[in-house]
Amino acid sequence: MRNVSRNVSQSTKMATIKDIAREAKVSVSTVSYALNDGPRSVPDEVKQRILDVASRLHYRPNRVARSLITRRSHVLGVVPTRIERDMIIGPYFVSMLNGIVNACEDLHQDVLLLTQLSTMDSKEALYPLLDGRCDGAIFIAPSHDSEGIHYLQEIGFPHVLVIGRDERSTSFDIDNSVGVRLAVDHFAGLGHTKIGMLMGPEELIDGYERNQSFLESMRSHGLTVQEKWMIRASFHPDSGLEAGRVLLSRKERPTAVFCANDEVATGFYKACKEFKVRIPEDISVIGFDNAPTSTMVEPNLTTVKQPIDQMSRHATEALVSLIEGKTETLSRRFITALVERQSTARPMEDK
Amino acid sequence: MRNVSRNVSQSTKMATIKDIAREAKVSVSTVSYALNDGPRSVPDEVKQRILDVASRLHYRPNRVARSLITRRSHVLGVVPTRIERDMIIGPYFVSMLNGIVNACEDLHQDVLLLTQLSTMDSKEALYPLLDGRCDGAIFIAPSHDSEGIHYLQEIGFPHVLVIGRDERSTSFDIDNSVGVRLAVDHFAGLGHTKIGMLMGPEELIDGYERNQSFLESMRSHGLTVQEKWMIRASFHPDSGLEAGRVLLSRKERPTAVFCANDEVATGFYKACKEFKVRIPEDISVIGFDNAPTSTMVEPNLTTVKQPIDQMSRHATEALVSLIEGKTETLSRRFITALVERQSTARPMEDK
DNA sequence: TTGTATGCGTTATCAA
DNA sequence: TTGATAACGCATACAA
Predict the structure, then answer these.
(1) Could you tell me if B241 and B267 lie in one domain?
(2) First-to-last CA distance in chain B?
(3) Which of B98, B118, B293 is closest, CB to CB, to A86?
(4) Quick one: which of A161, B52, B60, B207 could link to B201 by a disulfide (CB 3.0–4.6 Å)?
(5) Using CA atoms, how far apart are residues A323 and A109, in angstroms rounded to an integer?
(6) For residue A66, is it within any domain?
(7) How far apart are CA B200 and CA B185, in angstroms?
């Protein structure tokens, strides 16, 4: 047999259980059972001999072959939301990924970042996920009601949604309406009535919900929402800067501004500086997420915290449960909390 | 044959080429050739029939089986440097990962994040990397001279180092000494002579090199390095804050401080605020990396920029080249540049 | 032009 | 207690 390897890159030939079997004068099955500690028992003496040979040959099991037959890869797919190609939704996504990786370490899983899933609105788009390389998937902030998610539900592919919600999928998220209410309550409690918002992107579920919740919260406080103070932004500092310029250019300005997330707030800080508007003396600001940056800016940003570490860990553990066949629903909605720092004060008129 | 699936999770049975062959009344090989467009040609009519059946059965190729035989997974392993378990070296690592993911999208590769590689100082520790799940690996900021890297070199496993350097591995990094020199030159040009440093961690190659380079640069300017102004820190804001407190508690203070990276600088900003030290009036600050946060803090941080996007793209492309058998060395050292912002000024004494 | 048969490295199922 | 052998799903050398 010609042995022209197509695999030009790896020079040394890997030892297989076959090689070990030959060296140790036993059958491949015995080798397999010895290396895996079961399900069949192998006498200590022969097991030791096999282990020695394996070590001498630098044997390492081929997990591809193994997962072909066991149908388990011990890999979790992660599908990041990507905004205009860039994967990262700022520091937020990072924390989430970090939490997933930490949980995976404990659960002996690896993480496959699916780069090829550009869209999720067809069955076909999800094929890269279903080719056996991973046992299940975590979707971070998926767009709502996508065809892809429905398909996964239909075929029973294990998956969880984090920062996202679907009745038929295991989901982990926060109640945005509660979070936003905390912010508006805080403004109202300080005496603010002229409250504006740098809104989040409608196509992201968090953006949509926070925008809606703001309107509701204002209504429930009997406060009127001024169209001129509702400025659209995306979850990005640059966008916050631009939107902030628009807002601060109005003839009349609000005394408080709720930003759809901390990155937007960071951009708004810059706009305030440009317009020589002081925080919190001239204008109070609240963000959302409690991103690391919220304590880096001056004054430190008052914001709504969501427990990302907990969420990512729960999501990861739930996915592994689903993969192992547990069927009970594990969805959970997490608690938010207002973190008071230095970006809020009573409105000027009160003083 | 009993068909008790061990795979409890996935309910629907996947169609295989065998199923397609049966339905389309052709052999499996014909199906394979039709689906892969070669290497054998298949008449258009029969090919169309096969494609139709495949689509009707929602066929998706099992990439595990495929890669077992082709010995290519089209997956790139990424081994992140993890500091005390947390994966992220701040915004820096994120940008790097983002660049890798973007490059992978273009190159049709996915990314496997190896969570199980806790250490790299033995052959065995690297086994999770060598089990066939990925074709090669990118190491981000690996510790220097690790046994693991040498092992990969020895067995010819394709890999690249980014923010790291080894003569025998394809490496992509910056010349820290040039970057540090830019910073010290800038300080010196402004008339500073009393220059301190919040040092990076010695165990990271960037930390080590920047510390060393600072000493050299100072020497070449004929400036004396004061031990009392050289404070150890790790690449983290909290550490920068602590180190900053130590530095600012000295009876005599420097007029300029070089921070080993931007995160440390961010922490130092906080220390300055605590001690009512104004930047840049009382003290000038330069960071390293040009992280997103450098424009979020006030005053915006003057820093040394490294081209992370370029580096990550080059590293990814180089790894794919190596996997495909190209052997020429592709190592490259990238250019740094000083980004002047508002955190530096002439020292007080001059005014 | 097409079908059969072999092998990739495992695990699992036989039979001994 | 063990060894042969059949899968797993695919790609491909060989036959026809």
Answers:
(1) yes
(2) 91
(3) B98
(4) B207
(5) 12
(6) no
(7) 19
Say what the pLDDT of residue B3 is.
Answer: 32
Indicate whether B43 and B165 sit together in one domain. Answer: no
Structure tokens at A133: 């390389």
Dist CA A92 CA A97 (whole Å): 9
- CB B174: neighbour CB atoms within 10 A? 23
Best mutation target, B115, B119, B269, to test chain A (most A CBs within 10 A): B115
Q: From the list B62, B123, B132, which residue is nearest A62 (CB)?
A: B132
Interatomic CA distance for residues B59 and B13, integer angstroms: 10
The verdict on a CB contact (< 8 Å) between B88 and A94 is yes
What was the pLDDT predicted at B9?
46
Pick from A114, A130, A125, A112: nearest CA to A76: A112
Q: What is the DSSP string of B31-77?
A: HHHHHHT-SS---HHHHHHHHHHHHHTT----HHHHHHHH----EEE
Residues whose CB falls within 8 Å of the CB of residue B319, separated by 6 or more in sequence, listed in order: B76, B136, B137, B138, B158, B159, B160, B170
Model confidence pLDDT, tens digit, residues B136-163:
999 988 877 788 999 999 999 999 999 8
Strands B75-79 and A337-339: unpaired
**Which structural domain range is residue A114 located in?**
75-174+308-334
pLDDT per residue over B271-329, tens digit each? 999 999 999 999 999 999 998 889 989 899 999 999 999 999 999 999 999 999 887 77
A300 and A256 together in one domain: yes
* A61 contacts A28 by C-beta, under 8 angstroms: no
A82-119 as b/e, with b when 16 or more CB fall inside 10 Å? bbeebbbbbbbbbbbbbbbbbbbbeeebbbbbbbebee
Report how many Cβ contacts below 8 Å link chain A to chain B.
186
Q: What is B213-234 written as a DSSP string?
A: HHHHHHHHTTPPPPGGGEEE--
- Residue whose CA lies closest to nucleotide C9 C1': A65
Kindly state whether residues A212 and A345 are assigned to the same domain. Answer: yes
Q: For residue B69, is it within any domain?
A: no
Residue B176 distance to chain A (closest CA, Å) = 26
How sure is the predictor about B24, in pLDDT bands with cuts at 50, 70 and 90? very high
Confidence band (pLDDT; 50, 70, 90) for A293? confident
How many domains are there within chain B?
Answer: 3
Residue of chain B whose Cα is closest to the Cα of A101 = B115
**The domain that contains A57 carries what CATH number?**
1.10.260.40
> What is the per-residue pLDDT for B116?
84
Percent of chain A at pLDDT > 90 equals: 72
Whether the CB of B64 is below 8 Å from some CB of chain A: the reply is yes
B158 contacts A9? CB cut-off 8 A: yes
* pLDDT tens digits, A71-101: 999 999 998 876 655 555 567 777 888 899 9
| Residues B302 and B325 placed together within one structural domain of the fold | no
Residue B156 domain-assigned? yes
What pLDDT was estimated at residue A86?
58
pLDDT for residue A167 is more than 70 = yes
B106 to chain A, any CB pair closer than 8 A? The answer is: no
Q: What is the pLDDT of residues B194-246, one digit of tens each?
A: 999 999 998 888 899 999 999 999 999 999 999 999 999 998 899 999 999 99
Q: Are B163 and B96 in contact (CB under 8 A)?
A: yes
pLDDT of residue B329: 75
Does residue B312 lie within any of the structural domains? yes
